[in-house]
Specification:
The chain has about 220 residues and is of the alpha/beta class. About 45% of the residues lie in helices and about 20% in strands. Helix 4 packs parallel to helix 5 and helix 6 runs parallel beside helix 7. The two termini are about 30 Å apart.
Length: about 220
């Protein structure tokens, strides 16, 4: 098999977006405001948000868990794909970030589907489990504090139903996973989780070279 992938150039990425990306006006304006934010690199790429919305439709998701919201671009894409009675529980630590997206959620008419939980995500997930919501979610997105990814993953496995999906972003960690001289907590955590996921018989998985690497896992029945 080939030992490399073709590089996605700026021109090819532009072509991809011209021929695949479907953004509403509200989504475009939220993305543009996010792009101007000092922490813009925290945001999901628009094609990632579109992929997540596609997955919501594909599996007929009605209940979603999002760990890490930032300005809510992916939140908006997934909420728009949910049915009218769907629910998205969105966990984040920084209300200022969330409020950037909230006004666009209202404008898009999906704010009633979104339940924001502010505070440490591990605590929120533990509370959801304590409330008896095991196996109640169809899809979980993990895109928050990297050193806690494994803790988020294990809790998401409890909360997601058999056959449900968990998406984990930044699994390439900007290439740092390949550099053994990089021993920061976040890097070691992502590196260890990638190894763990590869051997985890509880799930099926695929790692996709989308933006900074996105792994999708399906909880086996």
């Amino acid at each position: 098999m080939p030992d490399h992938m073709r590089t996605v150039s700026k021109d090819l990425l532009r072509y991809l977006r011209q021929n695949s990306l479907r953004e509403s006006d509200v989504q475009r304006r939220l993305r543009e405001e996010t792009d101007a934010h000092p922490e813009a690199s925290f945001a999901a790429a628009p094609e990632q948000s579109q992929l997540l919305g596609f997955l919501v439709e594909l599996i007929g998701a009605r209940k979603i868990l999002e760990v890490g919201v930032f300005t809510g671009c992916s939140t908006l894409a997934m909420a728009m794909a949910l049915p009218d009675d769907g629910t998205l529980i969105a966990c984040d630590m920084v209300d200022d970030y969330v409020q950037i997206g909230a006004k666009y959620w209202i404008e898009a008419g999906v704010d009633s589907k979104i339940d924001v939980k502010l505070g440490p995500a591990r605590d929120t997930l533990d509370e959801l489990i304590a409330e008896g919501l095991e196996q109640q979610f169809d899809l979980a997105l993990i895109d928050a504090n990297k050193k806690d990814y494994d803790a988020y993953y294990e809790r998401a496995l409890v909360l997601v139903r058999p056959g449900g999906l968990i998406a984990l972003d930044n699994m390439f960690w900007y290439g740092a996973v390949l550099d053994e001289s990089k021993q920061e907590k976040s890097t070691r955590a992502i590196r260890a989780l990638n190894t763990k996921l590869h051997g985890d018989s509880r799930v099926s998985l695929v790692m996709l070279p989308v933006e900074d690497g996105m792994t999708l896992v399906r909880k086996r029945p």
